[in-house]
Write a structure and sequence with these properties.
The structure is a single chain. The chain has eight helices and no strands. The chain is mainly alpha-helical. It is globular, with a radius of gyration of 14 Å.
Amino acid sequence: MDYKTYIWNKVHSLYYQYDMNCARTTLTCLSELYSFPVSPDVFDAALGMHGAGGYGAQCGLIEGALMFIGLYFSASNMSEKQVASVCYQFAREFEKRFGSLRCRELRPGGFSKNDPPHLCETITCQAIEFAYLFIQDAEP
């Protein structure tokens, strides 16, 4: 299965079968795509990282990817300064591609009490594809 098909199927499953948030979904997908296990503690830490628990602040798509980048590249013996630089570059490129790092600006139509579940499924898939390819290009 190609990475795009994997991402779209996995995101749909994690959203609708497990009601997982976008940060944890991003971590799960990147962990599996790179065969790089992520500790359950990290997944616990990402519980509220979907726009700060739904507040609409920094998007969980960027947060989950940044957490994975930090874990993945630190494990490859990249220096802290180098990892921070990769994170900076990722955030800059993500903002350039998607227009913002803020959940309330990325979420289609913002937030409303009448929103259907998992309104961000499409952008989640696009963001994970973007992160996957970015990490491939950033590997030492």
